[in-house]
Design a protein that fits this description.
three-stranded antiparallel beta sheet; alpha+beta
Length: 61
């Protein structure tokens, strides 16, 4: 079974650049406290790296 990432938005996107807001939306995060579980692949890792200051990431099995 592939590893997965539990991604939680911990900060507001209000004062961030438009591309970072779009990245959060692509991940499925709309507000502080939202949690999504995504597959651990290079695309999702890139999304997380782009907004790493706004999210908390945990690896789950």
């Amino acid at each position: 079974m592939a590893a997965r990432l539990k991604i939680t938005q911990i900060k507001s996107k209000v004062s961030e650049k438009q591309n970072q807001r779009n990245t959060l939306r692509s991940l499925g995060l709309k507000r502080i406290g939202d949690v999504v579980v995504r597959e651990d692949n290079s695309q999702n890792r890139g999304y997380v790296n782009a907004v790493s200051h706004l999210v908390k990431v945990e690896e789950i099995d």
